[in-house]
């Protein structure tokens, strides 16, 4: 597994794939390592293809929340809304929707994929969360800002403060995006 990761980091992705292909016992961690390698190297479509293969019953492996986080990261890199929506459906079907990290990544994905009309989906995810951390608020506020929703940014920032959350530097950057 470490060798596979090493090959991909060094730009020898084909060698990493070869190591993966030669492994007889592939657990979820091994699958996630190769998916991570694809995402890190901008090969999101390959990551999703591997995700599809991973789901086949003969492989005996189901994705976990780490897989979903990796694929959401890849969706943002690709600005691939349809990929991200597919992961969101998987998250809902498999019960990962309570994870703060997953929800934060969903908010970021919807906001960063550049579809203002889909920012409402980011807000739905946000409102459905029981626990919100500073990363949650930052994802929402930055997402609203990059989608030109200045008034909503101010309202969210005010609500965040009212609930006792403290802003970080990324959040201030998001708030500053209103004027750009």
Automatic annotation (TrEMBL):
Protein's UniProt keywords contain Repeat: yes
Signal peptide: none
Molecular function in Gene Ontology: RNA binding
Top-rank lineage group of the source organism: Eukaryota
PPR repeat positions: 27-57, 133-167
GO process annotations (BP): RNA modification
Keywords for this protein: Repeat
Pfam family, one: PPR
Protein name: Pentatricopeptide repeat-containing protein
């Amino acid at each position: 597994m470490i060798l596979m990761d090493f090959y991909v980091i060094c730009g020898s992705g084909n060698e990493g794939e070869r190591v993966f292909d030669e492994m007889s016992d592939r657990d979820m961690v091994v699958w996630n390592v190769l998916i991570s390698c694809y995402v890190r190297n901008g090969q999101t479509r390959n990551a999703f293809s591997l995700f599809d293969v991973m789901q086949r019953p003969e492989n005996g492996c189901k994705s976990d929340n780490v897989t979903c986080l990796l694929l959401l990261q890849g969706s943002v890199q690709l600005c691939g809304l349809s990929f991200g929506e597919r992961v969101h459906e998987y998250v809902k079907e498999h019960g990962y929707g309570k994870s703060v990290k997953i929800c934060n990544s969903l908010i970021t994905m919807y906001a960063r994929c550049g579809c203002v009309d889909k920012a409402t989906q980011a807000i739905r995810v946000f409102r459905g969360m029981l626990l919100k951390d500073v990363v949650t608020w930052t994802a929402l506020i930055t997402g609203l800002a990059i989608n030109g929703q200045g008034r909503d940014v101010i309202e969210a920032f005010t609500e965040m403060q009212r609930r006792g959350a403290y802003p970080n530097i990324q959040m201030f950057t998001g708030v500053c995006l209103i004027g750009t």
